[in-house]
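FAQ

Q: What does a record look like?
A: Structure on top, sequence underneath. For example:
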């Protein structure tokens, strides 16, 4: 995959504030596009500073660089099929579904519309007209675990998952494995919120972990995780962001973030589609493919030994010498 490029998030916000449409009314009459892209965002929608925003930025970049137009839908009520069918009716070249929660709906709609090409991000489908993209979240989370263990003074760190699902298990298990690799005596507290959209709940769970001496908290929980990060900042403890660089959320707490390079994936696949076809039916992206990674480390300084350890484990994961667990034992 192509290396991550710097994207300007302010473009998206300015566009949203201006109330502009993303589709044809903004284009000159008769404009011809190489591709028309539709996207159904995951539950938390735009403005999450993470998963959805990253995918949106990838499409914005594609719109700037390539001859494409795109439209999007949000489904906070869980009406995925309805939103997908609205996009199908617009005769899209490609329709993207974000998140494992949309998989059942996208497969149903794909089977009903076999000529329509779909892309499922964060799930694996065997339906013929659905291309699947999954990430090795455990590999990027392993690096976060190493950083957490090296910066923790209490010897206790925390993980907060959004829902009890395989994709979140990968975050959790990678984080635990990395932390214990760096410090075998580290204690890792782990809680599941059961919700991606409750900032107050995230703050409450973080408070419980802080009360148990956790001084580094890693949430993989959408808006719920934002609440946890803000609570960490309130108490002067460290945190890690997820999916995108979330340093801006809490600049006194976020040491680093596990990058899930959805923006790059979306851009590259749209680019491939414009140039020809997406030949592969499924992509699984980890450190070796530059699909996941670690944001800049701020606030906490790793000593030379810690920096060397972090670089060494990354090389060993890429080479296969370290195989990071992705499921609970």
């Amino acid at each position: 995959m192509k290396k991550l490029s710097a994207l300007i998030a302010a473009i998206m916000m300015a566009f949203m504030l201006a109330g502009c449409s993303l589709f044809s009314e903004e284009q000159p009459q008769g404009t011809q596009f190489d591709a028309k892209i539709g996207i159904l965002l995951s539950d938390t929608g735009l403005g999450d500073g993470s998963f959805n925003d990253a995918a949106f930025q990838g499409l914005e970049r594609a719109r700037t660089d390539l001859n494409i137009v795109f439209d999007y839908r949000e489904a906070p009520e869980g009406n995925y099929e309805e939103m997908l069918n609205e996009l199908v009716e617009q005769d899209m070249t490609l329709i993207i579904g974000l998140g494992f929660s949309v998989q059942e709906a996208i497969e149903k709609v794909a089977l009903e519309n076999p000529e329509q090409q779909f892309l499922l991000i964060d799930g694996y489908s065997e339906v013929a007209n659905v291309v699947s993209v999954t990430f090795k979240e455990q590999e990027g989370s392993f690096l976060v675990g190493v950083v957490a263990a090296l910066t923790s003074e209490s010897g206790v760190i925390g993980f907060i998952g959004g829902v009890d699902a395989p994709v979140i298990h990968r975050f959790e298990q990678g984080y635990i494995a990395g932390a214990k690799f760096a410090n075998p005596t580290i204690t890792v507290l782990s809680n599941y919120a059961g919700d991606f959209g409750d900032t107050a709940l995230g703050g409450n769970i973080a408070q419980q972990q802080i009360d148990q001496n956790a001084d580094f908290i890693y949430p993989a929980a959408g808006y719920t995780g934002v609440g946890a990060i803000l609570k960490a900042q309130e108490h002067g403890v460290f945190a890690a962001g997820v999916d995108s660089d979330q340093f801006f959320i809490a600049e006194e707490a976020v040491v680093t973030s596990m990058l899930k390079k959805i923006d790059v994936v979306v851009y590259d696949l749209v680019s491939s589609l414009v140039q020809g076809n997406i030949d592969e039916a499924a992509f699984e992206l980890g450190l070796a493919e530059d699909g996941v990674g670690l944001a800049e480390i701020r606030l906490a300084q790793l000593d030379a030994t810690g920096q060397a350890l972090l670089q060494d484990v990354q090389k060993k994961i890429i080479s296969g010498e370290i195989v990071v667990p992705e499921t609970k034992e």
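Q: Is there anything notable about this one?
A: Confidence is low (pLDDT under 50) at residues 1-30.
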